[in-house]
Write a structure and sequence with these properties.
Largest sheet: 11 strands, antiparallel
Keywords: Signal
Strand content: 25-35%
Region (Disordered): 98-131
Signal peptide: 1-19
Mean pLDDT: 74
Number of strands: 19
Distance between the termini: 56 Å
Domain BURP: 171-387
Low-confidence stretches: 1-20, 46-137, 140-146
Biased composition (Gly residues): 101-111
Shape: globular
Order of helices and strands: HHHEEEEEEEEHEEHHHEHEEEEEEHEE
Amino acid sequence: MAIRLPLICLLVSVTAIAADLTPERYWNSALPNTPMPNSLRHLFTSDFTDEKSTNVQVGKGGVNVYTGKGKHGGGTAVNVGKGGVHVDTGKGKGTHVSVSGGKGHGGGVGVHTGKPGKRTDVGVGKGGVTVHTRHKGKPVYVGVKPGKNPFQYNYAASETQLHDDPNAALFFLEKDMVPGKAMNLRFNAEDGYDGKTAFLPRGEAETVPFGSEKFSEILNTFSVKPGSEEAEMMKRTIEECEAKRVGGEEKYCATSLESMVDFSVSKLGKDHVRAVSTEVAEKNAPMQKYTIAAAGVKKLSDDKSVVCHKQKYPFALFYCHKAMMTTVYAVPLEGENGLRAKAVAVCHKNTSAWNPNHLAFKVLKVKPGSVPVCHFLPETHVVWFSY
């Protein structure tokens, strides 16, 4: 009893804290006056999450966790209350409960239900409570050959990318952003997986290895075969995160929503900040001709912004960079099939530090620093700005 009571007090207190630190609640706490774009909200409900439900309840009696297929048949219930830790596991499910306070464990309670790669993990420790229901295996990679990221400006474009990358069509000149202008566009270029890759909670994302020196460990973590196209895609993303900055650019690879919020707020402040994304009325809309609507273009911000580009990786990871001398626009578009889009465009006034062979210069046939270069944001990308 002398050991159990302090443990239960710790559980009740840290779970109350953890309830306030879910990614969505973290956003609301840090940015109470800033709506979350749908592009980010959708990354909490994707194919990366198992269809089985997981419920966590925190009350005066302690912590109650239930994971199963709807009703209490075949699920696992974990109850932590005044009586200690009680586990009720359904038929055919393996459950491991560990209560530790020694060195190397961080202290607290860890519960693992089901087989690795297809299970629910519940951890209670000094950092709070983490509940994560794993996908059956992992997101399925569809074999998109990795290419240079057109939204990083120190890379040269290949001829293949110039002709085959659908993002090439997203670049245009600021002078062409007028009502009636038509462009062939696609806003949902495939990110390499058959479904949306989801955010990991920051506490979990920080435990996942990341970096070139840990690449073998990363491949092992995600069960990716060395030398495969998926491995090359992941390697490219890591290299881009580690690449040198362009000019005075400040950049950061955010592995969680919380870290994206922190970086953006650190550059723009938390007061009067907005985050917006392109919105298309139809999911998986094909490449087609769009015309800038008569309602016209609206300038949202001038001078500086933080743009976060979703990367090709097994979980949601964003390459964010603070861009100076930029203008953010909202551009209403009408597709030739009647489809409407609320596009977000970013115009860079100074491109003199970009690679002279960057994709934008090849597409637009202009030289670095000569004219403002603009690009629409794909649906999964986000731009932050002050207003």
